Automatic annotation (TrEMBL):
Keyword Chloroplast carried by entry: no
Name of the protein: Bifunctional NAD(P)H-hydrate repair enzyme
Keyword Iron-sulfur (UniProt): no
A biological-process GO annotation: nicotinamide nucleotide metabolic process
EC number from the UniProt entry: 4.2.1.136, 5.1.99.6
Amino acid sequence: MDIVTAQEMYERDRVAMEAAGLDGKLLMENAGRAVTYDLLRHIQKEHAIVVLIGAGNNGGDGFVIARTLLNLGYDVEAWQVVPDTKITGDAEAHKKIFQASGHPYRLLKSSEDLNTSLGCADVCIDAMLGIGVKGRLKEPYAEIVRLCNEKSFVRLSVDLPSGVPADEGEEDFEAFQAHYTSIIDAPKQSVFLQSTRPYYGEWSVVEIGLPPQLLPDHRRRLWGAADVKRTLPERDAHSHKGSHGKGLIIGGSRLMPGSVAMTARAALRSGAGLIAVSTDPEAIPSISPYVQEATFVEGKDGGQVPVLEGYDGIAVGMGLGRTSVMVTVVEQLVHEKETPLLVDADGLYLIKGFLQELEKREAPTVLTPHPGEFAHLSGLSIKEILNSPFSHSKEFAEKHGVYLVLKGPSTIITGPDGEQRVNISGNAGLAKGGSGDVLSGILLSMMMQGEDVMNALSNGCFLHGSTADLLVQDEHAKIDLLASDVIEGLSRTFRTFSS
Ligand SMILES: NC(=O)C1=CN([C@@H]2O[C@H](COP(=O)(O)OP(=O)(O)OC[C@H]3O[C@@H](n4cnc5c(N)ncnc54)[C@H](OP(=O)(O)O)[C@@H]3O)[C@@H](O)[C@H]2O)[C@@H](O)CC1
Ligand SMILES: Nc1ncnc2c1ncn2[C@@H]1O[C@H](COP(=O)(O)OP(=O)(O)O)[C@@H](O)[C@H]1O
Ligand SMILES: [K+]
């Protein structure tokens, strides 16, 4: 499913109208009706409903929604919150159809009148502003939004919660706090940002009849279960352990043995053929009982710098520490151009001095930072990253020729050519030490088994998160879930996808 900016959404509508001949009024009818039937899941027949209608096309959707609900026999009060002169174009056409259907609307004159009406409502449908919002809300919207947010009714938004910007990069806003948002055609960037995501509440996307083949491809997609089903490599009946990748994991130290142990076990649970671990010899006794299938490699001259040849993929950084020996290891990895490389945790700190050289690697380089680590790598502040994760990820990945997995509740995976995928599986049970180590193991394993790196990374992120989601449905709560539980839960997720 495509993820769009406001501009890209207007472009999709324009293509539908100009290239496919879909009339704007028809699109609005489609949108309004699709949203109505979606919202009905949250409305009961005995509910008193208020529909708030704003000045633009989002308000036009509101007239369609109010008409459809009234035609279906629901108890609806339609409030136009701007003067008649503000309702123009397709929205005005739908206002006329609404009136021709014999339905009355109320015009906002004072906020007291509206407040009385809101006081009697069970459900409030916000069709005030959508992707056309610019800057902070002006009156009367700002006051209405404040009134609505204080009420105890169910708040449902059309396309976007009014006031929420569609695009990343906007910091200064005030918005309707929806319990549920019915998104028209495609999720906007703000669905995935830390600051704007909470305003949407739960959400889903309704289809409005745009012609898929004609729509521009912005190469920014939400990666879902259907994509995983379509692209997850099948295990060939005639395969042997060498067919599924021989991986090397460099990490762990005397005081941090657990991280590399989890990465190795997660890689094996995700299908890697062979896993070798290069770690501090003192850490081996605590790692080996946890991953009996792994082997251990000794560095050159008995030291900690391993031989890097002979692997299908290498992961470095988990629990590695930041000593000068490790700088040498990372430097050699950067110069070892032919093996796919994944860098996480301490590895990300150590690789900063070699960023300019990554472009020269022939095999894929994957960096998996959380926002704090990305701030260190990029020199940006965490706030800047959280405000504009799409553009900063893209710029960084293109500049350094790397795959970037920017982790968080919405994880953004960016390729060196700027293509982006977003994963939203997972839950706050993953917000714990070790979750990232498990993800690294899964990603290493996926990269060794599939040819397409973007698919491998997107599938790995999805499987990691959806395992956590499955686990909190029955066996665990978000509070007690451990990273090691996710490793053991992978079997269940893989069975779901291979059945
Ligand atoms: N064919 C299509 O395009 C389809 C579009 N569809 C629907 O249309 C929506 C987009 O419609 P849109 O472009 O009319 O924008 P929308 O969000 O309704 O608002 C525009 C109004 O907001 C006002 N305004 C702006 N900022 C403001 C502020 N800070 N504070 C106060 N007011 C502010 C602005 O005022 P102005 O700046 O012009 O004075 C203008 O009057 C989209 O989200 C979807 O729901 C569907 O029907 C499918 C087909
Ligand atoms: N609130 C959350 N919702 C969904 N996924 C989350 C959440 N918090 C963390 N995660 C996921 O958990 C992992 C945490 O990785 P990371 O920050 O590197 O953790 P650590 O370094 O502690 O192992 C990432 O895959 C991230 O996407
Ligand atoms: K809205």
